[in-house]
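S1.2 Input.
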Amino acid sequence: MAEAEDIQSTIKKALSGNQIAYSSLLDRFWNGVYGFQLKRTENENDAEDITIQTFSKAFDKLHTYDNNYEFKTWLIAISKNIHVDLIRKRKKSVEIGENQDSVKKVLDDAPSAEDLLITEQNLANLLLHIKKLKPHYQEVINLRYFKELSYADIAEELNEPINNVKVKLLRAKKLLAQVIKGTK
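S1.3 Output.
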């Protein structure tokens, strides 16, 4: 029961715009959603893309979450729907544009612990660490920190919804911080 209350408290903080709360939800539930999708898709790239889209959609629609259900169950339901949509799109083999609903701000621009760790590294070492990440994470780090693009500009550059960019950047920063700390 204490864990459920902790999750509800974290969700309330996220709803009020707390970046650390979003990060905490991502950390707590990433592996569960990713593992679920990896079993369904049997493809690491698809599983990762679907997981990013799941958190993007969940964070955008967090205000609709009904706390009578487990948060992980809600995430898995979103994840299943995204996967089904992906299969439909592939079967039709027609490119369908992303839904351009108004985007809520998911993460603020205040530096996180990962941001501070990243900036403490000297450039040569940092570049070596970045090269250890998957290419799409390298790209989003490069666009944000080296080209200093805004979330909106990165979304346009990558032709992805802004919430996907925010979640992908959050995940990239977490992975990069792990690489820098040597825990990976």
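S1.4 Remarks. The chain has two domains: 2-92, 113-181.
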